[in-house]
């Protein structure tokens, strides 16, 4: 989506103390206070949800002071002079040109062919110049970590930070993408004996959805080739982390799990996690607690043991040792967090991949055979994740783990959570991503926040709408499982609004806002200059290698710019104001 909002909930996890928060210095001090009605204040500006388009009053709140400090700050999103103070006239003209071109269907539909033609006609040197004057210059910060520093420093001077994202992508054909996906998501056991493993349709690879780029315009896609390529992609992420640390003091860097290993493991481990959660729901229903909120469902320990014995999960002594060995049930009950901790053995991945049969209750291996090489590949994936987290910590950079498709996401979230447990002890370093268009988004955030409170580490989260809606719905319908997406826009909105119940407000430096570079500047910069912590996703990479990224930006902006002419109108207003004020040559001062 065009305005990717994210929240960093820096909740210090002390049991019984929800508001014991560590504040990062000097960034966010404000929250919105308005006397207008809800209907008047919730508006969409250029596709970006903001509080209101009229001047509003913000009040600053101190964490440890009883008396509220009232510092009135006026934000007027119609004030073009303030909104574009960081932009020169050439940059405003470029924005107008690019946004206009994005509304022309034939240019967007044929953008790849037109770029190839331009390269043939004008040559590589002139092609790169044209791109830097237009689309590349609008949406990409530069070719390498050195060339992006001036832009990052300029944005910082106007209150906007950076989330670095090396945006080089493979330019694969659909057939090549499908082959890579099927090769990397199907195990040796499945190849030898198709259909014998206990794999649900959702967590299997399907050739018609093998090209995971289909229907996705706002997310980068990685396809597995071999372990060497994963190592190279890890090095790319390390360079990005180092660049972020060198360019700013409070930066972010983003990674994708599918870039770091064979996706077969993500599919398998996701099914294990989902199956165990479903098994908990079955047991909860047996005890008449299925209508309770997820964290209020507490299984009575003795009744649970009896149910497991009756279902044939194990002998009485085995079940007793299984639960008491994990030091669970001391209160006489187990909740979902206790239950999840029962699958915490990472010593042997083949032993980890056991799933409960919901009909018999027996534990069954997810796969009939798990080769030594497959286990080695999975362990190397975990090692790469660990290496990146260590580099982020050493360089003072916060690491965002991007969300992906729902058949990968349970495993991705669990790995991100394990990283948070390890590295978020003193401050938030690792941030997981929650897609609010998913039906289970609120429950997932609630459970993870509670876990951080119990275990005493900082919870970090990025909240986004999600990038895979159309693809997810088509896949669920065709393959035959429940649509994981909320039924409508309002249901997704409620996932955001429920976050208020957990105290995630813009005050006390707990919530950040973010947009893509080159988009929604009239929202990000006024917020940043008013003291809100605002960040731009800053893509960078060589011109030729970011073409797939630019192609997606053009497609995404087509609907975005057709739906609203407001941003173009504001750009024209500011250009006219500068001309009338004699600012023919305007240079931002910072």
Automatic annotation (TrEMBL):
This is Uncharacterized protein. It comes from Chaenocephalus aceratus.
């Amino acid at each position: 989506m065009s305005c990717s909002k994210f929240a960093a909930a820096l909740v210090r996890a002390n049991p019984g103390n929800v508001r014991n928060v560590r504040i990062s210095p000097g960034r966010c001090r404000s929250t919105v206070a308005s006397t207008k009605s809800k209907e008047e204040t919730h508006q969409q500006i250029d596709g970006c949800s903001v509080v209101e388009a009229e001047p509003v009053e913000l009040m600053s709140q101190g964490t440890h002071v009883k008396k509220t400090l009232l510092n009135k700050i006026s934000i007027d999103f119609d004030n073009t002079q303030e909104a574009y103070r960081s932009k020169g006239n050439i940059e405003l003209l470029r924005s107008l040109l690019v946004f206009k071109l994005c509304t022309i269907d034939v240019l967007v539909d044929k953008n790849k062919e037109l770029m190839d033609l331009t390269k043939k006609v004008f040559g590589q040197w002139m092609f790169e110049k044209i791109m830097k004057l237009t689309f590349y210059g609008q949406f990409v910060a530069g070719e390498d970590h050195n060339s992006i520093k001036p832009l990052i420093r300029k944005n910082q001077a106007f209150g906007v930070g950076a989330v670095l994202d090396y945006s080089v992508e493979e330019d694969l054909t659909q057939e090549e993408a499908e082959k890579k996906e099927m090769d990397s998501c199907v195990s040796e056991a499945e190849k030898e004996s198709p259909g014998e493993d206990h794999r649900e349709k959702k967590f299997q690879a399907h050739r018609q959805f093998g090209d995971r780029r289909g229907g996705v315009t706002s997310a980068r896609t990685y396809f597995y080739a071999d372990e060497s390529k994963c190592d190279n992609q890890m090095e790319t992420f390390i360079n990005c982390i180092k660049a972020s640390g060198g360019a700013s003091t409070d930066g972010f860097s983003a990674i994708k799990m599918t870039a770091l290993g064979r996706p077969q493991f993500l599919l398998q481990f996701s099914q294990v996690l989902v199956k165990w959660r479903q098994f908990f729901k079955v047991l909860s229903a047996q005890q008449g607690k299925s209508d309770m909120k997820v964290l209020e469902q507490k299984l009575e320990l003795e009744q649970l043991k009896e149910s497991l014995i009756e279902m044939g999960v194990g002998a009485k002594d085995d079940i007793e040792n299984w639960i008491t060995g994990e030091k669970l049930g001391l209160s006489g009950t187990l909740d979902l967090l206790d239950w999840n901790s029962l699958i915490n053995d990472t010593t042997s991945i083949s032993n980890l991949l056991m799933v409960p049969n919901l009909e018999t209750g027996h534990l069954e291996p997810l796969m009939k055979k798990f080769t030594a090489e497959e286990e080695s590949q999975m362990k190397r994936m975990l090692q790469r994740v660990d290496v990146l987290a260590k580099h982020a910590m050493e360089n003072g950079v916060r690491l965002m783990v991007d969300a992906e498709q729902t058949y990968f996401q349970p495993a991705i979230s669990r790995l991100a959570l394990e990283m948070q447990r390890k590295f978020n002890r003193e401050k938030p370093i690792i941030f997981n991503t929650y897609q609010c268009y998913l039906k289970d988004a609120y429950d997932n955030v609630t459970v993870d926040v509670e876990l951080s409170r119990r275990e005493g580490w900082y919870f970090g989260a990025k909240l986004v709408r999600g990038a895979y809606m159309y693809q997810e719905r088509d896949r669920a319908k065709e393959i035959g499982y429940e649509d994981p997406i909320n039924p409508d826009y309002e249901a997704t909105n409620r996932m955001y609004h429920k976050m208020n119940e957990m105290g995630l407000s813009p005050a006390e430096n707990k919530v950040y806002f973010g947009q893509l570079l080159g988009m929604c500047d009239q929202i990000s910069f006024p917020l940043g200059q008013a003291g809100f912590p605002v960040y731009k996703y800053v893509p960078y990479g060589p011109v030729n290698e970011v073409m797939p990224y630019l192609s997606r930006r053009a497609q995404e902006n087509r609907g975005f710019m057709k739906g609203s002419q407001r941003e173009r109108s504001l750009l024209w207003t500011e250009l006219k104001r500068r001309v009338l004020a004699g600012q023919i040559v305007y240079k931002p001062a910072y």
